[in-house]
Amino acid sequence: METIMSHLTVLVSKIDRRHLQLALMLVVLILLVIGAGAPAGAGSYLPGNGG
Amino acid sequence: LILLLAILGGFLAGLMRAGLNRSPYQPLQLRHTFLVPLAVVPQVLVFQALSGREDIPYLLAAGVLIFTQGILLIFILFNLNTSGFRVIGAGLGLNFLVIVSNGGLMPISPETVSQMAPYLQAESIQPGLRYLGSKDIILLPEETRLWFLSDIFITPRGFPLKYAFSIGDVFIATGAFLSLWAQGGVSKSWAAIEITGGDN
Predict the structure, then answer these.
(1) Is A50's CB within 8 Å of B135's CB?
(2) Which of B:42-71 have CB within 8 Å of A?
(3) 3-class DSSP assignment, residue B183
(4) Helix, strand, coil percent content, chain A, rounded in steps of 5
(5) Residue A38 and residue B138: Cβ atoms within 8 Å?
């Protein structure tokens, strides 16, 4: 268990601020295109109340 | 999913560009990033997680889409000087325009649906029905305002993913690609050193 923890500590220490910024940037961009885009995939349909 | 390919492609292309330039890949400096999850979480809930439920009223779905896309437009305005964001903003604006013009959801014609999903019965794709798992509503082209901005394109035959998409989606994908590609250019700190060195 201690070995695993020490490995994890080393791994986390190697993740610097730039890597975190890169990860955040990708997450934000992925969410942005999901929210901004409106493609429709082949699938089922749902009767709605409008139209 | 189809728009995520642009993210993946842009990121890989940007990393390769950074490698060729021998400069580190620069993360985007974005402002007010909290606006993005604030907009996307309600969308995912209404159009993905709960989309199988018929009891989500049309007005709620339309209201959520208009409100959350409005938030994303504000986010884009805050970050307009970021590479590619003007293109993403143009795409979002075009989608927003056609969505608002047609009652709050993205129009798609029965013909486009039947081409994309030929296994669906004709009576299943009647105008007025919402399309499960998407932001779309089926409308006849002649009854669609700004029809040319709606989901009129289909991924080409042979492409593994069958999707209908709009010209706005093309702009969004292009902007996302450009944004990530640009970060693989010459690093800002390196460029600053060059400029400083040139002045001396």
Answers:
(1) no
(2) 43-44, 51-52, 54, 57-59, 61-62, 68-69
(3) coil
(4) 65, 5, 30
(5) no
Token look-up 């749902």 returns: A46
pTM score, two decimals?
0.85
Q: Which chain A residues contact residue B78 at CB under 8 A?
A: none
3-class DSSP assignment, residue A10: helix
Helical spans, DSSP H, in B82-137: 85-101, 110-116
A-chain residue closest to B178, CA distance: A29
* Strands B153-154 vs A40-41: parallel, antiparallel or unpaired: unpaired
| A43/B105 touch (CB, cutoff 8 Å), yes or no | no
d(CA B100, CA B96): 6
For residue B93 the two structure tokens come to 């604006």
ipTM computed for the complex: 0.88
A6-12: list long-range contacts, CB under 8 Å, 24+ apart: none
Residues 8-47 of A with CB under 8 A from B: 18, 21-22, 24-26, 28-47
Print pLDDT tens along chain B (200 aa).
Answer: 788 999 999 999 999 999 998 888 989 999 999 999 999 999 999 888 776 556 678 899 999 999 999 999 999 999 999 999 999 999 999 999 999 999 999 999 999 999 988 887 887 788 988 887 789 999 999 999 999 999 999 999 888 888 999 999 999 999 999 999 999 986 655 555 545 554 44
